Amino acid sequence: MKNVISDMDGVVYRGKQLIPGAQAFVDRMLAARIPFLFLTNNAEQTPYDLKLKLESLGVHGLTEDNFITAAMATAMFLKNQKDRAKVYVIGGGGLINELYNVGFSISESNPDYVVVAKSATFSFEQLKKAVRLIDQGAKFIGTNPDMIDPVEGGNEPAAGTILAAIAAATGKKPYIVGKPNALMMTLALRKLGAHPDDTLMVGDRMDTDIVGGMEAGMKTALVLSGVTTTDMIDHFPYKPDYVFNNVGEIALDKL
């Protein structure tokens, strides 16, 4: 395989634990000079944060250019929609940083958009404010639809659970920028300068990584180190091209 686009959560690490085989997977891509990107629905951290996180887990040799986050994709999308905008944000510093980078201001006063990502500090007050602003006309944007994230010892609620609460209260569905939206895949392929026929999408979720890669025309590899289990695969009307226990089993020169 000539190019690789890979998810991170549940593929490279779970929470603060490196998944077995992850370092070897990165080392093989670097040694073979295979162009690759980590494409993550994580909107909490910047590429620099993610680089530092992987280094702390023992994975070296990466640069900030090896990452595209849902926060980056959301900022790019909104910038294409409106050159200058006010945004009310539920989410972490990574998302706020990317919105600032494209010239947006963060405001609770008549914002153009309510942008929602996973937030460890999500509160009823934020829920109430988001609902009121959307009811008043702000457009409802989600960085990603993931309902849960894999962490040490199990799973935890993710952006999708917050989006569901706001959607239930407003009766409006968010426009979601992250995977499986083809926009994320297109941005990644464009950044790599890659053709989908020559690219492998690696992920742990059938409903985001695998369907997104498939719809973009890429080969897909499901790893069982995150959310999707073997028993769950048959519940979907599509299948991955390959299934591995973890990324350490992926021999890219044989695919």
Automatic annotation (TrEMBL):
InterPro entries: HAD-like_sf (IPR036412), HAD-SF_hydro_IIA (IPR006357), HAD_sf (IPR023214). The active site is at D7, D9. Divalent metal ions. Mg(2+) is the most effective. Its cofactor is Mg(2+). Substrate binds at K179. Pfam families: Hydrolase_6 (PF13344), Hydrolase_like (PF13242). GO terms for molecular function: metal ion binding; phosphatase activity. It comes from the Bacteria. Keywords: Hydrolase, Magnesium, Metal-binding. Mg(2+) binds at D7, D9, D204. This is HAD-IIA family hydrolase. It comes from Chitinilyticum piscinae.
